[in-house]
Amino acid sequence: MPDLAGNVIKNNATFVGLLGTWILTIGGLLWSVASTNATYDLRIDHIEEELTNLDARLDVAETFRMEIRSDLAEIKTDLMWIRKDLESRN
Predict the structure, then answer these.
(1) d(CA 21, CA 86)
(2) Half-sphere exposure of 62 (CA within 13 A, CB side)
(3) Predicted confidence (pLDDT) at residue 36 exceeds the cutoff of 90
(4) Which residues of 24-33 are buried (b: 16+ CB within 10 A; e: fewer)?
(5) pLDDT tens, 41-79?
(6) How far is CA 63 from CA 45, 58, 67, 72, 73, in A?
(7) C-alpha distance from residue 10 to each of 1, 14, 22 (Å)
(8) Whole-number average pLDDT of the chain
(9) Using only C-alpha atoms, what is the Rg of the chain?
């Protein structure tokens, strides 16, 4: 009888050890997947924020370009007017 009880205790300890090992393995796998997912989410959020900033900068650059184009058109008109005025005086 004592031999049978010793085997049951050994088997029970082995089972508990294996169960603990599997729990740790699955927990580690879940932790790894969760941290990878969190890293990717953080990278995607950063890229989206950078894209938003670039879009805003592009809008500002486009507005600035249009202002320069308008100013150049005014300068061209002024130069044409000055040229006609000089030609009419001669």
Answers:
(1) 96
(2) 6
(3) yes
(4) eeeeeeeeee
(5) 999 999 999 999 999 999 999 999 999 999 999 999 999
(6) 27, 9, 6, 14, 15
(7) 14, 6, 18
(8) 90
(9) 39
Structure tokens at 40: 């990717």
Quick one: what percent of the chain has pLDDT higher than 70?
89
How far apart CA 30 and CA 71 sit, in angstroms, is 61
Helix (H) or strand (E) holding 75: helix 2-89
Q: How far, in whole angstroms, is CA 70 from its chain's centroid?
A: 37
**Longest CA span, the chain:** 132
CA–CA gap between residue 81 and residue 42 (Å, rounded): 58
